[in-house]
Amino acid sequence: MSDPKQHGQDEPISKSQRKRDVEARQDLGEELVNLSVDTLKKMNLPEDLFQAIRDCKRFTAHGAIKRQKQYIGKLMRDVDPEPIEKHLSVLKGESNEHNAWLHLLERWRERLLTDDAMLPTFLADFPGADVQLLRTLIRNARKEKLENKPPKSSRTLFQAMKEVIPEPGVPKRQNDSEDEEA
């Protein structure tokens, strides 16, 4: 006979552990209910879960909301929670990968604003960038800085770079036609 301690995966999960898992999934579902519909669309949730969350948002009666959140928790049992938790940690600013990506964007913006020779390097690394838009934003950002104006173009440059430089671990957005169907 083999020792049961060697086969940790074969041991049954305790009732208490199952209950903790169910409650954790319910809590995760509750966090999803608090997000905007646009944010939820970016998460690529299963359609039935997405619809249940949307339904919960429109309920006003306390009892109906409570039942719907329990139903969302039930649907969450069939969903891998790891990508959802990862996306939520990014939204909360707790993700090291996300923070590193933001720092990368900031470094690139500073390089582009201080050195004209960096634009060809940036374009070589990220060929999908709109060259004309970048040049305009860089020129305007430099002008704003010299005139001590608010850094509107610098912020717009940062946003444009966010579209070009992919965030690690985040799936690409679905095309807009699929978003409109939901």
Question: Spans of 5+ residues with little confidence (pLDDT < 50)?
Answer: 1-7, 173-182
CATH class of the largest domain: Mainly Alpha
Count of folded domains = 2
Strand content: under 5%
Give a count of the beta strands, DSSP E runs of length 2 or more: 0
**CATH fold name of the largest domain:** Diphtheria Toxin Repressor, domain 2
Q: What is the mean predicted local confidence, pLDDT? A: 82
Oligomer: single chain
Q: What is the distance, rounded to the nearest whole angstrom, between the alpha carbons of the first and last residues? A: 55 Å
Q: Decide which structural class fits the backbone.
A: mainly alpha
Helical coverage, percent range: 55-70%
CATH homologous superfamily designation of the largest domain: PSPTO4464-like domains
Instruction: Write down the Rg.
Output: 23 Å
Number of discrete helical segments: 10
Helix and strand run: HHHHHHHHHH
Report on the structure:
The structure is a single chain. α3 packs antiparallel against α4 (62-76) and α8 (131-146) runs antiparallel to α9 (152-164). The chain is mostly helical and 182 residues long. The chain has two domains: 15-92, PSPTO4464-like domains (Diphtheria Toxin Repressor, domain 2), CATH 1.10.60; 96-164, Diphtheria Toxin Repressor, domain 2 (Orthogonal Bundle). It has ten helices and no strands. Belongs to the DarP family. It is found in: Cytoplasm. Pfam families: DarP.
What features would you highlight for this structure?
single chain, 182 residues, mainly alpha, Diphtheria Toxin Repressor, domain 2, 2 domains, disordered N terminus, disordered C terminus, ribosome biogenesis, Dual-action ribosomal maturation protein DarP, rRNA binding, RNA-binding
